[in-house]
Amino acid sequence: MEFFEAISAKFNYWIYVIIMMIGLYAMIAKTNMVKKLIGMSVFQTAIILFYVSIGVKDGATIPILYHDQVHAGHHHDDHAHNGEHYDTPHGTDHEADEYGYPSRHAPDVVIDGDDFANPLVHVLMLTAIVVGVSTLGVGLAITQKLHREFGTIEENEIHDMIKSGK
Amino acid sequence: MKSLALISVVITGWLLLSAVGDFPDWGDPNSPANSYRLSQHFVTETFHETAVPNMVTAVLADYRGYDTMFETVVIFTAGIAIISILRRFTSDGADAGTEKVYEKRPDLIVDTTCRLMIPIIQLFALYVIAHGHHSPGGGFQGGVIFGASFILIALSRDLQAAHKWVPEQRVLNLAGIGILIYAGFGLASMFLGQNFLDYAILHKIMPASPIEARYHSMLGVEIGVAFTVTAIMYSIYSNLASKGTMKEGL
Amino acid sequence: MIWQFDLIILVFLVITAIISLQVKDLLAASMIFGVYSFLMCLLWAGMAAVDVAFTEAAVGAGVSSVFLIATVLRTSRRSSD
């Protein structure tokens, strides 16, 4: 068991290198344009896997606060919503109270940094996925344009057609 | 060519694998990425500063709002690029007439199932957008799901049926409006005397405290992102599926 | 996360990546790429990256498969390699 756990300590990184090299090989060696684009997406997801693996913490949960932490200070505000918050000046530590809107969120929650996974890498990769599918769409559009011009999506056949003057 | 590719890939892979031994252990809380001051700040202080329980949404829409805004612009640009590469109008397409045109009658079972499913999918997409502060989700995911519902209309019936709901003109307007909503929040905070996308100052025009102004501005920004992503996903699909003629889907 | 699941999913990831790049039928390649994306999504959900996993499930396994299939049906289905 200890042997397997020692392997799994670095296993993610090995696999990310292997998947990335599979994608790189497909981008270089495959002649079909759709295969090249699938290789590009595989390469992209391998990098995302690397980033997400960096942000993992042992014993940490998802980067969303617990319900109890969010709603810890709500009890006296629940009374405020029952109608007394217009005449009871409570919560004077918040400047917004001059508008008559009591602060609904508890500022005194203590959050341990090791309880939650690293949110920074998740944010970086979340936008990368959506931008990735947009660039995949651009690549597929170019593939269709090539098919319209040359009647094929094989790279070597397109090269031959260009060399022989179509 | 293939052996050359294999050799270069193996060399690159060997170099990367030899570096794996220097990485911190998987799940190490004290690794440089996890003990970095900014990451710790995002975990511990996000709720106090923005009142958003989902840290990923808060970092995405507030702390890194500038980045997210231009990611949205990248998606918009990709949509425009696909239209300019692929779109063609029937007058100049010589082979447009040679493609077979057939009357597609929607299948009863598929059509009924999609009629039932599409409102539920759209409702779920709106929930994902609006509830992104408290659960996984947000503008990108909700926008993709909303765009997928229009793709489902186009797949189950015809591209023309989907075009009645979302004409091409309206789709591009929506994509632009999304970015304008996002930039509008930034400009509003600029005109009130703070930096671009510094939402806390918006409490002057919002009935909320500065912390809650950040909370509510993030929702507005996510809605802007969702507009753009919805429109561009549908636009990419309709161009790819009809080879740019917008006549007939798959 | 549980390392046994981690191990199984990672091995399947490599297998699906190789198959989707080796199979000659491009429609099958697109579908297996969807499977690859879904496995990746499971892996990220296990690594506590729920937002990333949600995005990948909607984008990678859903929309990008549709884009690939649209292109394959509009161009040619056979691949020479």
Describe what this molecule looks like in 3D.
The complex is a heterotrimer of chains A (166), B (250) and C (81). Chain A has 166 residues and is an all-alpha fold. Chain A folds into two domains: 2-63 and 115-163, Orthogonal Bundle (Helix Hairpins); 66-110, no CATH class. Chain A contains six helices and no strands. By secondary structure, chain B is an all-alpha fold. Helix content of chain B is 69%, strand content 0%. Chain B is built from ten helices and no strands. The longest helix of chain B is centred in the last third of the chain and has 32 residues, at 210-241. Chain C is mainly alpha-helical and 81 residues long. Chain C has one domain. In chain C, helix 1 (3-22) runs antiparallel to helix 2 (26-46) and helix 2 packs antiparallel against helix 3 (50-74). The longest helix of chain C is centred in the C-terminal third of the chain and has 25 residues, at 50-74. At the A-B interface, helix 1 and helix 5 of A face helix 1, helix 3, helix 4, helix 5 and helix 10 of B.
Set down the secondary structure blueprint.
The complex is a heterotrimer of chains A (166), B (250) and C (81).
Chain A (H helix, E strand, L loop, with lengths): L1 H28 L3 H22 L12 H4 L4 H6 L38 H32 L4 H9 L3
Helix pairs in contact in A: 1-2, 2-5
Chain B lengths: L1 H19 L11 H4 L1 H14 L4 H9 L1 H22 L21 H23 L8 H18 L2 H7 L2 H24 L18 H32 L9
Helix pairs in contact in B: 4-5, 4-10, 5-9, 5-10, 6-7, 7-8, 7-10, 9-10
Chain C lengths: L2 H20 L3 H21 L3 H25 L7
Strand percentage of chain B: under 5%
The main β sheet of chain B shows up as: none
For the sheet with most strands of chain C, the description reads:
none
Shape of chain B: globular
Q: Please estimate the helix content of chain B.
A: 55-70%
Order of helices and strands of chain C: HHH
* Annotation, overall tally of beta strands of chain B: 0
Number of helices of chain B: 10
Helix content of chain C: over 70%
Strand content of chain C: under 5%
Keywords:
heterotrimer, B: 250 residues, mainly alpha, 69% helix, C: 81 residues, 3 helices
Question: What is this entry, summarized?
Answer:
The complex is a heterotrimer of chains A (166), B (250) and C (81). Chain A is an all-alpha fold.
